[in-house]
Structure formats: C-alpha cells, structure tokens
C-alpha cells in the first residue's frame, strides 16, 4: 500500500532520514518505534505528502507522490486519515464541527446523518457531552481522542496515528488499541502507528519497524522482533 | 582579502540568496493561490466571514482616521494656500489628493495594521500547531480553504473602505475648511466639483483593489511560512505588516503612473 524507497531528508543540514526503505502492507497494522526525536513523525508526514523527500521516492498504491500535482495530491489524500501528536484540532471550531469537518467537506450526508456519525465516533473514543465545547476547554488526552474521532470519521483506506496513546490513562490506552484493531479487522483499514508504548506495540502490530539514526534497522513480525539479535532493538524493547 | 570575504561578502551573499529564495517561494504561493481561485467548492460562508472581519469591522477605524486625515489636510493646505490667496482651491486639492492617493494608501495601511496582521498571526498559529497540515491530511487544500477567501475578501473590501475613507475625509476637510478657516462654502464645493472627476475616484478604487490583493497574499504567505512556536508567529506577523506596508508604497508609484496615463482627465 505504501512503499518508501531510499528516502532522505535533511533539516538545516541535519540528516533526519538517511535512506529509509519500508513497505507498509495493505490491511495490516504497522507500528514504527524508535527513540524520541529520531524522525518518526517526519517519516509519517512523508507517507501522506506533507513533506517531500530530498532524495528517494514514496509510492502510494503504486503511484509516486513526487509526480502528483497539488490538486491530484489533495485527491489522493482522501484515502487517508491522520491523528497528529498534538491532535491539531481547529481552535476556531467546536468539537462537533472538528469531527464533522471531513464529512462536511467530502460527503453529501444530511445534517442529521452527520450528527449521528459524529456522535457515534465520539462515543467510540469514550467522549460524551463534549460536542459543544471548544478545543481549548479540553484536556490533552481528550483533545487526542477528538483528533482520533476526526481521523476515523470517513473510515479511510489508511490511517496514520502519531502517538495515539501518549497522555492517555491505561484504560483509555487499551480502548484506543482495541479501536485500532477493530478498525483493521472490521474495515480492513491499513494502519501506521507511531508509538513508544512497547506493550501496545506488541498488542496490535502485524509488523514492527524500528528507526535508529535515520534508518530502519529492523522490520518484521512481532515474533521476529522479540528474537532480534540487534542490541539497539533488544535494549529498546527490553528483552 | 579572505577576512573581507568571510566578514562581509559571505553574509551578504547568504542574505541575497535568502531574499531570492523567498521571492521565488512567494511567487509560487501567489501562482498556486490564483490557480485555486476558480476551483469548486465555493465556500461562501468562509468568504462572508472574512468580508465581515476585513470590511465591516474595519469601518470604525477607517471613519476615525478618515475624518482626522481630511481635517488636518484642510488645516495645512488652508494655512499654506492663504499665503497665496488661493484658499478657494482647498476643496479641490483635498478632493484630488484623497481620491487619487491618500484614500487608497491610508486605507491599505489601516487594513494591513488591523486585518492583515491578524491574518498572519492566525495562519501562523495554525501552521505551528499543525492545523494547516491537518487540513492537508483531510484532502482540503489549505490554500483553497484559508487563502482564497481572504484574498477575495481583502481585494473586494479595500476599495469599499477606500470609498468610505474618501467621503469621510472630504467631510472632515469641509468642516475644518468652512467652519474653522472660514473659507467660502460655495468656492470650496464649486472647485471640488469642478476639479475632481469620477475617474479620479474610480482610479483610486482600482489602486485600492490591487493593494488589497497584494497585502492579503503577503500576509497569508507570512502566516503559512511561520515556524518555531509563539516567537515564530510574532516574527511572521511583523514581517507581514512591514512587507505589506512597503509593497503598498512601492506599487503605489507604478500604479499611479499607469492610472494617471489611462484614467485621469487629460486637463488635470
């Protein structure tokens, strides 16, 4: 579904991605792990064309993102949903308007149907009676859940999650993990998750990829990862 | 020589390189904004909200500045023209200056100060909090959603505000000229009607539309390129206000040359 070939990216002379090669398979959950500041979010932004590589290519369903015009890129993004690390809610809109935003823009649903879908997704992420609130009135964890509801509202083909469980309590972490699993099992959604949470990673991943010094140093199924002889991987996952 | 190159030439080269890079980037932004302009969907709600913010909410400050600019201009020209016994020309001088020059330029500067600074700050905040990236990921072009309505609204509202500024400025000048300086009301109005042509007025409005277009694109660009948190948003706002003001004053010369050639009466 997503293929990164020899992707390089520098910021102000600092190498962040240094030849990334990674394949995200359709309908699977791929979790990308790595230490803070290693460039995981930068990698995620390359997958949706928010950042363009200095060198290398990113393919979505066989199409090279670098060849797409601005309107074609916008069209391609309809296949994606993304949860940002800081939720990135529109601060001039209410919670309801934030979650409804993709539906208003890309569907012909009636106002009642939109309301029904928004309330259903808010319920799914464990939020009740917050639809009229502004994002500034919510806690960090609540913002993240609203962002999650917004990311899944269109039930897209691919969802990119940038640290979906950071800042959530253990119960909410489990329910977000279950939600990611349910989205994959019910709708065959391809998910790419960035996580620091090793337990969550092994609970949900079909494939794990570890980033270190701008490269993918290990990628494979959780069992392969557990048995990895790479000292960096072993230290990170605590085996 | 090597020391000279290190201290002087290298930073200068870097600066020139950065200015050329910014100009190129700005031109691409402008081109992309124009390319998105005719595309559907037309978000009328967004456009009307921007027109209200830029036009309706700027009206009080335009009225306040317009009345005092007209008043002080009447005071200065009245006192100066009295030295040549030419006070009767105060109305015509103010009418021509306001419609051709002062109205559009002052209005554009006030819109820059009030609305474009807010535009740059709002878009800058959206950039650093990833709200603009979020729009991108939801398959909504941020240029189409955020820039196009602001660009259209500023291009339409700046001429309307200029018309208000012109009218209020003349009223301010009228009161100072007639009531304080005791210039003959008949002469003031007669010369005003005789010398100020509708083409002067419309020439000023065309100029204002160009100003509105440029300041909106500059301010949106500044916001879009903000980086580095609150400090970055502050810098982008300052850059928007300074660049817009400078561009208004520079383009004013070229627009005036063009408008005087094609819009004004040949006799004036």
CATH topology of chain A: Rossmann fold
- Could you give the order of the helices and strands of chain A? EEEHEEHEHHHEHEHEEHH
Count of folded domains of chain A: 1
Describe the global form of chain A: globular
Q: Which helices and strands, and how do they pair?
A:
The complex is a heterodimer of chains A (239) and B (268).
Chain A: E1 2-11, E2 14-24, E3 29-33, H1 40-47, E4 55-60, E5 63-64, H2 70-76, E6 80-83, H3 95-106, H4 111-124, H5 140-152, E7 158-162, H6 170-187, E8 190-194, H7 198-204, E9 207-212, E10 215-220, H8 222-226, H9 231-237
Parallel strand pairs in A: 3-8, 3-9, 6-7, 7-8
Antiparallel strand pairs in A: 1-2, 1-4, 4-5, 9-10
Helix pairs in contact in A: 3-4, 3-5, 4-5
Chain B: H1 2-36, H2 44-54, H3 59-82, H4 90-128, H5 131-137, H6 142-180, H7 185-195, H8 198-224, H9 229-262
Helix pairs in contact in B: 1-6, 2-6, 3-4, 3-6, 4-6, 4-7, 4-8, 4-9, 6-8, 8-9
């Amino acid at each position: 579904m997503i293929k990164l070939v020899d992707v390089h990216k520098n910021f102000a002379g600092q190498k962040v991605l240094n030849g990334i090669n990674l394949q995200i398979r359709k309908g699977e959950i791929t979790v990308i792990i790595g230490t803070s500041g290693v460039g995981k979010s930068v990698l995620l932004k390359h997958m949706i064309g928010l950042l363009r590589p200095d060198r290398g290519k990113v393919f979505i369903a066989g199409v090279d993102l670098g060849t797409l015009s601005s309107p074609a890129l916008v069209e391609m993004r309809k296949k994606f949903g993304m949860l940002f690390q800081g939720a990135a809610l529109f601060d001039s809109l209410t919670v309801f308007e934030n979650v409804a935003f993709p539906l208003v823009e890309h569907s012909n649903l009636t106002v009642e149907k939109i309301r029904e879908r928004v309330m259903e997704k808010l319920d799914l992420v464990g939020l009740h009676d917050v639809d009229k609130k502004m994002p500034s009135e919510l806690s960090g964890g609540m913002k993240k859940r609203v962002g999650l509801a917004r990311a899944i509202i269109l039930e897209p083909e691919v969802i990119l999650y940038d640290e979906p469980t950071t800042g959530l309590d253990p119960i909410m972490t489990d329910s977000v993990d279950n939600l990611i699993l349910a989205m994959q099992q019910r709708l065959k959604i391809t998910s790419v998750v960035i996580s620091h949470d090793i337990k969550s990673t092994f609970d949900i991943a079909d494939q794990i990829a570890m980033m270190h010094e701008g490269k993918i140093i290990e990628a494979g199924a959780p069992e392969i990862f557990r048995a990895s002889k790479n000292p960096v991987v072993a230290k990170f996952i605590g085996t | 020589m090597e020391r000279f190159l290190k201290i002087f030439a290298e930073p200068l080269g870097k600066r020139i390189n950065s200015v050329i890079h910014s100009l190129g980037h700005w031109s691409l932004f402008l081109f992309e904004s124009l390319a998105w302009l005719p595309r559907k969907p037309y978000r009328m709600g967004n456009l009307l909200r921007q027109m209200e913010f830029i036009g309706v909410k700027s009206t009080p400050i335009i009225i306040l500045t317009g009345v005092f600019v007209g008043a002080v201009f009447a005071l200065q020209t009245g006192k100066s023209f009295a030295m040549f016994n030419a006070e009767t020309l105060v109305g015509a001088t103010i009418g021509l200056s306001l419609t051709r020059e002062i109205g559009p330029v002052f209005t554009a500067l006030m819109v820059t100060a009030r609305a474009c600074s807010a535009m740059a700050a709002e878009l800058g905040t959206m950039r650093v909090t990833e709200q603009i990236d979020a729009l991108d990921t939801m398959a909504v072009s941020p240029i189409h959603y955020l820039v196009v309505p602001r660009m259209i609204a500023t291009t339409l509202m700046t001429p309307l505000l200029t018309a208000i500024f012109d009218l209020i400025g003349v009223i301010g000048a009228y009161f100072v000229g007639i009531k304080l300086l005791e210039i003959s009301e008949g002469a003031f109005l007669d010369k005003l009607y005789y010398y100020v042509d509708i083409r002067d007025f419309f020439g000023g409005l065309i100029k204002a539309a160009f100003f509105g277009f440029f300041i909106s694109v500059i301010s949106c660009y500044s916001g879009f390129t903000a980086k580095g948190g609150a400090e970055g948003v502050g810098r982008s706002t300052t850059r928007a206000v300074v660049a817009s003001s400078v561009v208004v004053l520079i383009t004013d010369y070229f627009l005036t040359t063009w408008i005087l050639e094609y819009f004004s009466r040949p006799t004036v």
